[in-house]
Design a protein that fits this description.
Length: 59
C-alpha cells in the first residue's frame, strides 16, 4: 500500500512540474516575465516542499 501512495504522490509532483515548466515557457515566449504576477514563485515553492515531503516519506 505504501508503494502505491508513493507512486501516486510522485506522479502528482511530476504533473505539477510539467505544468510549471509549460507556464514558464509560455511566459518566456510571450516575453512577459510578470504574466503570472508572482504565482510562479508560489508554485515552485509548493513543488519544492512536496518534493522534500516525498523524499522524507521514502526514507
Amino acid at each position: 500500500m505504501k508503494r502505491y501512495a508513493f507512486w501516486l504522490l510522485a506522479s502528482v509532483i511530476g504533473w505539477q512540474l510539467t505544468l510549471i515548466s509549460l507556464t514558464l515557457t509560455a511566459c518566456l515566449k510571450t516575453k512577459k516575465l510578470n504574466c503570472t504576477e508572482g504565482r510562479m514563485a508560489e508554485m515552485v515553492l509548493s513543488l519544492t516542499a512536496q518534493s522534500f515531503a516525498l523524499y522524507a516519506s521514502e526514507k
